[in-house]
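Comment on this:
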Amino acid sequence: MFFDYRFWHFLTRPYELASQLQTGTMRHFNRRLLIVFLAGIALFALRETWGMGTEALTPLMTTMTTTDYIIARYASLAGTVLWSVLYIAFHVFGIALILSTLTKIPYRQLVPLQVLIAGVLLMEKAVLFIVFAAKGATVSLSFLSFGPLAVTVMENWYLILFLNQLTVTSALIITLQYRFIRGFVVDGRWKEHLWILIGLHVAMALITAAVAYIPFDSILNSLFGGGF
């Protein structure tokens, strides 16, 4: 039996996707996968063009020629596009591999789920960008996370960055993944897999916060003596 891979349909019915993957043959998946990649590249490029995440380039305007600055902006855009591809690929294929290892569900069966998850993450980034663009300014903390609340009661910046990774979207993603896994697991280990999902997201949040906490600017300045 054949079935069509429909993003919006299965986004609200991950259990149905799991069931159909076990009993049928999926069609039109590659097209949806390509759309997610293209949408992600366009979103990341638009954010970079608007200036989101390019604060480090602003001081260059006082030390470089206009031509050099334009080249730096194009290089930054190229890097952003590359990062968008890596970001989506990791969340689609990398996380699918990790979940396959932890749950013993076949890797290929998890990839369609992770395309849904990548789409959700892109929608979150789109919402943040629209709000920031409307306000004409950005902040380092997401209003969809515990970060803004944490910064009012905490001084440890690492913990703030960690809580900033725990968003409403994270809860939604865990729910989608859990409902999908329940469609595969029939041995009653649902609670165990729920804790596995929560642990995986917490671990990813800790790693992401640690990377964000690394002072790359200071490291580069120490390596190159403050300049090139």
Notes: The chain is about 75% helix and 5% strand. The beta strands are 2-4, 25-27. The longest strand covers residues 2-4. Residues 223-228 have pLDDT under 50 and may be disordered.
